[in-house]
Amino acid sequence: MPQTKPTDFFLRVYEVVRQVPEGRVTTYGAIAKYLGMQRSARLVGWAMNAAHSHPDVPAHRVVNRIGMLTGKHHFGGPRVMQQLLEEEGHQIIDDQVVGFESVFWKPGDDV
DNA sequence: TCAGTGACTGACC
DNA sequence: GGGTCAGCCACTG
After folding, report:
1. Global pTM value
2. I need a labelling partner for A90 at 20 to 30 A (CA). Which of A42, A68, A79, A105 fits?
3. Quick one: pLDDT at residue A7?
4. Interface residues, strand B, Cβ cutoff 7 Å
């Protein structure tokens, strides 16, 4: 497409998040960087805020750069995000993913 | 139409 | 080594 609509950014974010393998997590910054907008990590967060209308988007697999579940309150409860991650085999301590670096998935790494 | 806000990040002091 | 600041862009009032 010759022109990138603002909403396309959201759709691309969703697309990247959907590619995150089960049992892995990624970061807002990684997604933003992958889309060529590393400085716009907040936009990824905003996209996640709007991702509620996209059930296919595993937003719980997106954390900040240190593996902290900063967006957990947006899941309808402070423990929902943690529970979802634990069901995928993660261990959450103090709102942080244990061994975050080991489960970190970089967009484009699956290829 | 304008200004403020937000699930972040990197750089600077 | 730790805290503060600015930047990015879309949505809402």
Report:
1. 0.90
2. A42
3. 66
4. A 27-29, 32, 38-39, 41-46, 48-49, 51-52, 59, 62, 64-66, 70-71, 74-75
Cα A104 to Cα A5, A18, A20, distances in angstroms: 29, 15, 10
Query: What would the pLDDT profile of A49-61 be if each residue is shown by its tens digit?
Result: 888 878 889 999 9
C-beta of residue A44 within 8 angstroms of C-beta of residue A65: no
Dump pLDDT digits (tens) for A16-51.
999 999 999 999 999 999 988 888 899 999 899 888
Q: How many CB atoms lie within 10 A of CB A103?
A: 20
Q: Read off the DSSP letter of residue A72.
A: G
- In strand C, the nucleotides that come within 7 Å of a protein beta carbon are 7-11
